[in-house]
Every structure is written in structure tokens, then in C-alpha cells.
Design goal:
Elements: H1 31-51, H2 56-73, E1 80-84, H3 90-100, H4 113-122, E2 126-134, E3 138-145, E4 148-153, E5 158-162, E6 180-183
Parallel strand pairs: 1-3, 4-6
Antiparallel strand pairs: 2-3, 4-5
Helix pairs in contact: 1-2, 3-4
Length: about 190
């Protein structure tokens, strides 16, 4: 059969499988749309703060209160704060309880053991303290009482100090008349 010049013929179609469709090019996140979204979120937060009285701290307080309410509602509220290691010294245990800053009904998640320990040690009533969160609702504080070692005159008043030279707040010097009396700026050390 003679060939016809100038005419091109398509190759015969394959039967069976269709040719795969080309994949669309990967979409890249548009940086401008991300920035616009963040600006919109910030605008909504600022508008919410303006409606609450113009203070961003009120928004933070509102979120914190909602978090506290949710935790308490789920059973993560402090029900008991136990203090051990102080023996029968009710006054000192009461002071340690007060200095801990934790009370029944508080959110367990906000009861940070490290912060509580620092508060307790700053009272001068204990020489060491360990604080434990016992989930779901108990705080355990084990403290070693500071022992009054001397009465020191700091130039203004008499103060009770422990064996490490720390001032023991809340103790009256006249109650410790049998202890050694010290005076001078470097005496506690």
C-alpha cells in the first residue's frame, strides 16, 4: 500500500489502563494569608479585652478562672493540705500552712511544689521542706522545724535566730530568755 506523505497518524490507543492524570503542583502556604490570619486573631483578642473594660489582664484572669473552674469541676481541687514533721507545734504548722499559699478548693495544677517550698523556707520557721502533690486532691508538706539557737540584737530590736543564723519570723525574743544573746552585724553568721 502506498504511503501518503504529509499526513501524520496518531499511534493506536492502548487498551486497558487509562494514563494517570498528572498531579497538581504542591500548594505552598501563602505567607500573606498566614499573617492576615494572625492579625485577625489578635484583633479579636484586643476587641474582647476592650469589651471587658480595656485590660488584657482581665482576659488572662478570665481564662485562668475558667481553667480553675474546669479543673475543680473535674475533681482536681485541693481538698487537704497535710503538714508533717513539726510535731505538736500547732503555731508553727499554722504559719507553714499560711506561708504555703495553698488552701482547700484551690486548683491542684496551680499548686506548684517548688513555689510552695520556697515560700515555706522563706518563713524562717523550717530548715528544710519537701512538698508533694498527691493526685487528685492532696498536698503533703514535710518540714523540719528550725530550732531557736540564740537571740540577736540587730541594732534595732531583739530577734530569735536558728542554728544557721536565719531570723525566725513570728517568734518573740522575750519567750527565749534562756538562749545565748548576740549583738553586732555579723553575729548570726
Amino acid at each position: 500500500m502506498p504511503q501518503v506523505k504529509g499526513r501524520k497518524t496518531a499511534p493506536p490507543a492502548k487498551r486497558g489502563k487509562k494514563a494517570p492524570e498528572p498531579e497538581p503542583p504542591p500548594r505552598q502556604a501563602d505567607a500573606m494569608s498566614i499573617v492576615t490570619g494572625l492579625v485577625m486573631v489578635l484583633a479579636v483578642i484586643v476587641a474582647g479585652a476592650a469589651l471587658l473594660g480595656g485590660s488584657m489582664s482581665k482576659v488572662g484572669d478570665g481564662v485562668g478562672n475558667a481553667f480553675d473552674s474546669a479543673a475543680v469541676g473535674l475533681g482536681f481541687a485541693v481538698q487537704d493540705v497535710q503538714i508533717t514533721g513539726l510535731g505538736d507545734d500547732v503555731r508553727r504548722a499554722s504559719l507553714v500552712q499560711q506561708m504555703s499559699g495553698v488552701a482547700p478548693g484551690d486548683n491542684m495544677f496551680r499548686a506548684d511544689p517548688h513555689t510552695i517550698r520556697r515560700r515555706i523556707l522563706s518563713s524562717g520557721q523550717v530548715t528544710s521542706a519537701q512538698v508533694y502533690r498527691l493526685w487528685p486532691n492532696q498536698i503533703l508538706i514535710h518540714a523540719s522545724p528550725a530550732r531557736a539557737a540564740a537571740v540577736w540584737h540587730d541594732g534595732e530590736a531583739w530577734r530569735v535566730i536558728d542554728g544557721t543564723g536565719q531570723i525566725m519570723e513570728g517568734l518573740a525574743a522575750q519567750d527565749y530568755a534562756d538562749l545565748i544573746r548576740l549583738s553586732g552585724a555579723e553575729a548570726p553568721a
